[in-house]
Amino acid sequence: MALSVRGLPKLSTTKASSKATRVVTKASMYYGADRPKWLGPFSDKAVPSYLKGEYPGDYGWDSAGLSADPETFARYRSSEVFHSRWAMLGALGCVLPETLDSTKHVPWFKAGALIFDEGGLDYLGNPSLIHAQSIIAILAVEVIMMGLVEAYRASGELPTGYKFSDKLYPGGDAFDPLGLADDPEIFAELKVKELKNGRLA
Q1: SS3 for 151?
Q2: Phi and psi torsions of 67, nearest 5°
Q3: Phi and psi (nearest 5°) for 2?
Q4: Separation CA 153–CA 164 (nearest Å)
Q5: N or C: which end of the chain has fewer CB within 10 A?
Q6: Rounded distance, CA 196 to CA 56, Å?
């Protein structure tokens, strides 16, 4: 018997090695027909037939039928992953200034307004890092930086010549310097954790 999860190599349940057996056990916890579903034990007839547990974070919930079309589903899936990543960065950006003495524990909802003060805004409370006094300049820098990141992602190639085919999970030394995605078991689990935390953020 083999477990096939989209985006992961086929894993065999034969006892070739304890690592291979462990991979199947962990991966099957988040994927396939026996995965946790949004209504728990009452989900049998509530899960649409096109949500089979092939992708991370699939709990069988699509009451409006928005993902019935495979192309639409692929677009929504990639949008959710990218928005989750930005939301997690935004949550960190909200919490961090409130915890630092150098920012005088400014609440996140007041931090942006400090740019309109007479002295401007010092990032992380340090004037030698970035001393912002113009909201137009901040907006221009953000648009340029995010535009470059998105352009590199969309093209599938970095300026250094590094190419990647999977635009959701590019991996490699440039995007995964710690090598967390080298083990399929850990990689499958991290995909689910990323979406769970992104949905929370």
Answers
A1: helix
A2: -105, 20
A3: -130, 145
A4: 9
A5: N
A6: 9
